[in-house]
Design goal:
Shape: globular
Mean pLDDT: 92
CATH architecture of the largest domain: 3-Layer(aba) Sandwich
CATH superfamily of the largest domain: Stage V sporulation protein AD
Helix content: 25-40%
Strand order of the largest sheet: 1-2-10-15-14-11-12
Number of strands: 15
Number of helices: 9
Radius of gyration: 18 Å
Distance between the termini: 19 Å
Low-confidence stretches: none
Order of helices and strands: EEEEHEHEHEHEEEHEHEHEHEHE
Number of domains: 2
Structural class: alpha/beta
CATH class of the largest domain: Alpha Beta
Length: 335
């Protein structure tokens, strides 16, 4: 049966499986190097809806529908819907939960929500509290910019350390039987706040949280980076990834040869506006449940550690001059 491991980790037994998954993406993401791994690419940012927020809702609901369809699951087989997003009061997930009509856990982990949702789903299934759970997340570049920074119409000049919020959504059916890979272990992160106040430099704010969770994961499970074929962070981007590797090296870990970041994988590097890379809930969502899941099922990867990262600030705290706390949650996926 499942058991605590060390201070912050859990080994799941029986192992719950990612039985089915889907990833949908916006037009810019659909031009990037991972375009072939998305189930659906939208031709415009509004996805035929009246607003960016409505488009994000449509993307999340279609990702959920596709995940169910690909695994031949009916809605009645889903015991819980687990989701979160970036909009105030996670409204995209709330509206989607209303449309799905299943018991709902709304989660907020900012851009760490994918790993948070997979963790909750894995615990529910492994603990016998659910036969199947639908875990999902979404983000939209334009809705996130409007809420946290400036409306895109303003034409604000973005600094080099800024990242580009991924437009898209991802969903996974976590089940007690069938499918692969399995969710074998989770490490729940602590909130870390080292005083970063630049809302454009979220990679720098989140890197210490990622380091904290990774170091605890290695200690709790008595593993080192070589245990995994790939360790992937959610959206640290260029700045945060470099900082993370520097922080890990201080503790004697050098995972460069098996490390990557979803924010560095999703976009064409020649698109200069992305700045330091991708960000947002959908960043790790579409990369992990689209690209990396395909590679695992094709035998290219066998053990992947997903460390989704999130900045837990708000527009109010930023206006009040507060710093940016961050968190990272780790989920081990194994074939």
């Amino acid at each position: 049966m499942s058991a605590r491991a060390g201070k912050q980790s859990i080994l799941l037994d029986p192992v719950p499986f990612v039985a089915s998954a889907a990833a949908v993406a916006g037009p810019l993401e659909g031009q990037g190097p991972l375009k072939g791994d998305f189930d659906l690419v939208y031709g415009d940012l509004r996805a035929g809806q009246k607003s960016f927020e409505a488009a994000e809702r449509k993307m999340l609901q279609e990702a959920c529908s596709l995940a169910l369809e690909k695994g031949s699951f009916s809605l009645e087989q889903i015991d819980y819907f687990i989701s979160g997003d970036l909009l105030n009061q996670i409204t995209v997930s709330g509206y989607s939960a209303a449309a799905l009509g299943r018991p709902y856990f709304g989660l907020y982990g900012a851009c760490s929500t994918l790993a948070l949702a997979l963790s909750w789903g894995g615990i529910l299934v492994a603990g016998g509290f659910a036969g199947s759970a639908l875990a999902a997340t979404a983000s939209h570049h334009c809705s996130a910019e409007r809420q946290f920074r400036y409306p895109t119409e303003y034409g604000f000049q973005r600094p080099e350390q800024a990242q580009w919020t991924v437009t898209g959504a991802a969903a996974a059916v976590i089940s007690a039987a069938g499918g692969s890979p399995g969710i074998t272990a989770i490490t729940t992160g602590k909130v870390v706040d080292l005083g970063e106040k630049d809302s454009f430099s979220l990679g720098a704010a989140m890197a210490p949280a990622a380091a904290s969770t990774l170091l605890m994961h290695f200690a709790d499970l008595e593993r080192n980076p070589d245990y995994y074929d790939l360790i992937v962070t959610g959206d640290l981007g260029r700045v945060g990834s470099q900082l993370l590797l520097a922080l890990l090296s201080r503790s004697g870990y050098y995972p460069e040869q098996r490390y990557s970041d979803c924010g560095l994988m999703i976009y064409n590097p020649h698109f200069h506006e992305i700045g330091a890379g991708g960000s947002g809930c959908a960043c790790s969502g579409v990369v992990v449940l689209g690209h990396l899941l395909r590679r695992m099922r094709q035998g290219e990867l066998h053990k992947v550690l997903v460390v989704s990262t999130g900045a837990l600030h708000s527009t109010t705290t930023l206006a009040q001059g507060e710093s940016i706390p961050a968190v990272a949650h780790a989920v081990a996926l194994e074939m």
